């Protein structure tokens, strides 16, 4: 499933989330793309109705096209499926995109800047192999009934602590763009099925008080839904209420017989997480008490959240 929202209809700088699966090969890809509105705010394209779109708007959509084309070539021709090929495809398509005109100069300006966070995956013999691919501060995750939400990407920022990233929102040190060098970071892993994979832009996870809140949002909406479409609808409704940004999410649940089995598998985890957060005595207002509560809950939650980040990274392209 995928979820996509815009704060300003028609001008949202998140591209539509990508979810594609090649049944014959048992492999797929999911990804999200968040155009960097500050660095790419200058107009870059004029629509037929005369309205202009920003460089960030164009950049995220070009990146989506590049990832979809890269995956299609990989599964149909078995050619050029490496992260290096993806980086080259991104560079080639960005070079062909409309020019961005701006009088603003400086180190913060970028031409067609966007983040990318995605997972390419292969299923076989009760296992799933996946490769995380990312640039910037959008994130990819594994969600499991035992360990909950586990990040498999680390933001490209100087700050590495996930809670501090919620508090400070520092600038990115690596972002896809036409006019500056960038790299696609990667990590590979194999896990047993069943498994839930997802990717999200910061409109989903950047407006909560603690990383555990994002997991609770996923599980609470899952518990109330009757099917995948209902789950997506619930997520769309809630993120539109609390987020101050465009938000997008792509998700795939693999190895479950049906939606009811998926929902039932996560019920104990959702109940445990809800009870744990309630016991923590969450303050109702911002301030020192809230910071202490955030520090305490993050210290307890962090081990499982970061357990898959402890593995050795494959590298960058």
Structural features, described:
The protein has 317 residues and is of the alpha+beta class. The protein has one domain (2-102, 110-316): 4-Layer Sandwich (Phosphatase 2c, domain 1). Helix content is 37%, strand content 23%. The protein contains eight helices and 13 strands. Helix 5 packs across helix 6. The mean pLDDT is 90. This is Serine/threonine protein phosphatase. It comes from Streptomyces triticirhizae.
CATH class term: Alpha Beta
Strand content: 15-25%
Helical content stands at 25-40%
Instruction: List the secondary-structure elements in sequence, H or E.
Output: EEEEEHHEEEEHEEHHHEHHE
How is the main sheet built?
6 strands, antiparallel
What integer value in Å does the Rg equal? Answer: 19 Å
CATH superfamily: PPM-type phosphatase domain
Give the tally of β-strands: 13
* Low-confidence spans: none
Structure in a nutshell:
By secondary structure, the chain is α+β, with helices and mostly antiparallel strands. The chain is built from eight helices and 13 strands.
What order do the helices and strands come in, and which of them pair?
Elements: E1 2-5, E2 18-22, E3 27-32, E4 43-46, E5 52-54, H1 55-77, H2 83-96, E6 116-124, E7 127-135, E8 139-144, E9 148-151, H3 162-168, E10 185-192, E11 195-200, H4 202-205, H5 211-224, H6 228-242, E12 247-254, H7 259-279, H8 288-305, E13 315-316
Antiparallel strand pairs: 1-12, 2-3, 3-6, 4-5, 6-7, 7-10, 8-9, 8-11, 10-13, 11-12
Helix pairs in contact: 1-2, 5-6, 5-7
């Amino acid at each position: 499933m995928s979820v996509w929202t815009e704060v300003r209809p028609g001008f949202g700088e998140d591209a539509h989330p990508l979810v594609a699966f090649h049944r014959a090969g048992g492999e797929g890809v999911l990804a999200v793309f968040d155009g960097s509105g500050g660095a790419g705010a200058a107009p870059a394209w004029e629509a037929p109705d005369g309205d202009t779109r920003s460089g960030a708007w164009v950049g995220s959509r070009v990146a989506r096209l590049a990832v979809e084309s890269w995956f299609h070539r990989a599964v149909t021709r078995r050619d050029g499926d490496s992260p290096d090929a993806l980086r080259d495809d991104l560079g080639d398509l960005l070079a062909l995109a409309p020019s961005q005109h701006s009088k603003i100069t400086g180190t913060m300006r970028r031409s067609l800047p966007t983040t990318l966070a995605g997972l390419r995956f292969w299923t076989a013999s009760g296992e799933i192999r996946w490769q995380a691919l990312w640039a910037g501060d959008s994130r990819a995750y594994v969600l499991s009934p035992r360990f909950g939400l586990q990040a498999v990407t680390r933001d490209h920022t100087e700050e590495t602590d996930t809670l501090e990233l919620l508090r400070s929102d520092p600038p990115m040190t690596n972002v896809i763009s036409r006019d500056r060098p960038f790299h696609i970071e990667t990590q590979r892993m194999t896990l047993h099925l069943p498994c839930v994979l997802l990717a999200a832009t910061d409109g989903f996870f950047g407006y909560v008080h603690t990383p555990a809140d994002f997991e609770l949002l996923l599980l609470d909406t899952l518990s109330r839904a009757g099917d995948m479409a209902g789950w997506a609808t619930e997520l769309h409704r809630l993120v539109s209420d609390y987020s101050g940004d465009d938000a997008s999410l792509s998700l795939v649940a693999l190895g479950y017989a049906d939606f009811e089995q998926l929902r039932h598998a996560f019920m104990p985890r959702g109940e445990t997480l809800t009870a744990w957060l309630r016991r923590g005595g969450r303050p109702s207002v911002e301030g020192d008490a809230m910071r202490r509560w955030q520090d305490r809950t993050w210290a307890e939650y962090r081990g499982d959240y970061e357990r898959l980040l402890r593995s050795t990274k494959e590298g960058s392209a």
